[in-house]
Amino acid sequence: MKWFFEIGYGHFLVLSAALFTIGLLGVVLRRNALIVLMAVELMLNAANIAIVTFARMHGGEAGMRGHSLAFIVIAVAASEAAVGLAIVVAVFRTRRHADLDRLTALKH
Q1: Which of 58, 77, 82, 95 has the most CB atoms at less than 10 Å from its CB?
Q2: Which domain holds residue 31?
């Protein structure tokens, strides 16, 4: 029963794959811009879990590079969320909806 409680690298990779799949389904199936942005964030976090897992597997200098890459991905995700949310708010103010199927152009 002890093997049941030991968490290995495979567990983190399965978690990463599951989160990425949920995010991908959110991007493909949903049409609300806010939900699509959240799904993209979920996919980036899943990629971060995989990056840190592989960095931990290789250890040493490669581990620190992987953690640095994960930190950069977090910074990019934060800026993507800020810019994406600003665009969604601007579109909502002019069009009164955030439905991606109904948006044909981003100009006034």
Answers
A1: 77
A2: 2-95
φ and ψ at residue 99, rounded to 5 degrees: -80, 125
Does some domain include residue 68? yes
Q: How far is CA 89 from CA 29, 51, 82, 84, in A?
A: 21, 32, 11, 9
pLDDT digits (tens, 9 = 90+) for 12-21: 999 999 999 9
What is d(CA 17, CA 23) in angstroms, rounded to the nearest whole number?
A: 10
What is the domain count for the chain? 1
Q: What is the dihedral of CA 57, 59, 63, 66, to 10 degrees?
A: -20
- If DSSP codes are grouped into helix, strand and coil, which group holds residue 31? coil
CA 6, 10, 16, 17 dihedral sign is: negative
